[in-house]
Amino acid sequence: MEGSTYATLSRQSGLLREMQVVANNIANATTTGYRTGGLVFSEYIKGQGTGAIAMGHAGAHTTEMTQGPLNQTGGTYDFAIEGDGFFLVDTPGGPRLTRAGVFSPNAEGLLSTPDGYQVLDTEEAPIFVPAEVDGIYVAPDGTISADGQPLGQIGVFIPNDPQKMSRQKGLLFDAPEGYEGAPDARVLQGVLEGSNVNAIEQITRMVEVQRAYEMGQSFLETEDERIRAAVKIMIK
């Protein structure tokens, strides 16, 4: 197989992966707390001199961190973060970060996500909300109180290295380099943050990727026909 074919195949593989990322973004354009994903292409050289081959590789994922729209819901346990930062939830795989603030007390009274993961406070401990209390109020610093008595403080954290965060199941992120408190972030009650996906930009990008993929496919088909013709001539 010729170098040009290798290079085109690597490019096609990367374009296919980008198409999947873009399609996922579009599918989550209305998902609460969703962060736009992206793919970074890099070039590497295989070989030396005149036999060197330049190949493209889509190996790094990115996450768009811009603030999504803040939508008023009035829900007692609907929360959004204004500014940089993430809520921290406890999962079977360990603590995970999320911007999706749809919470509610579970059967044990622990503030949890719809998936049953417990929301953690500033000390990474669960937050208990007694069933019999009324007048739940959350201050901008995340302090949650009922009947005028503090119950805990919802933790808001920022990853130490956002570039190394990895997208996990659903709306969760893993921060392998750790995280720390986000003192400048504000917690808003009765508000949910929408997806930060720009649907028009993503649809435009999908069209561009599709056209680039079709061009690459056309080149491969032309190369295949050329090689077949050359082989037929050689065996005559």
Give an overview of the whole structure:
The protein has 236 residues and is an alpha+beta fold. It has 2 domains: 3-65 and 197-235, no CATH class; 70-193, no CATH class. It has 2 helices and 18 strands. The protein has helices at residues 3-27, 199-235, and strands at residues 37-46, 53-63, 70-72, 79-82, 86-91, 94-98, 104-105, 111-112, 118-119, 136-138, 143-146, 149-153, 156-159, 166-167, 173-174, 179-181, 186-189, 191-193. Strands 5, 6, 9, 13 and 16 form a 5-stranded antiparallel sheet that branches. A 3-stranded antiparallel sheet has the order 10-11-12, with no helix packed on it. Strands 1-2 form a two-stranded antiparallel ribbon. A hairpin with a 2-residue loop joins β11 (143-146) and β12. α1 runs antiparallel to α2 (199-235). It is elongated, with a radius of gyration of 24 Å. The model has no long low-confidence stretch (mean pLDDT 86).
Average residue pLDDT? 86
Q: Enumerate how many helices there are, as a single number.
A: 2
Order of helices and strands: HEEEEEEEEEEEEEEEEEEH
Instruction: Determine the strand fraction and express it as a percent band.
Output: 25-35%
Gyration radius (Cα, Å) is: 24 Å
- Quaternary assembly: single chain
Number of separate domains: 2
Structural class: alpha+beta
Number of E-type strands: 18
What's the helical proportion of residues? 25-40%
Distance from N terminus to C terminus (CA atoms, Å) equals 21 Å
Shape: elongated
Biggest sheet statistics: 5 strands, antiparallel
Low-confidence stretches: none
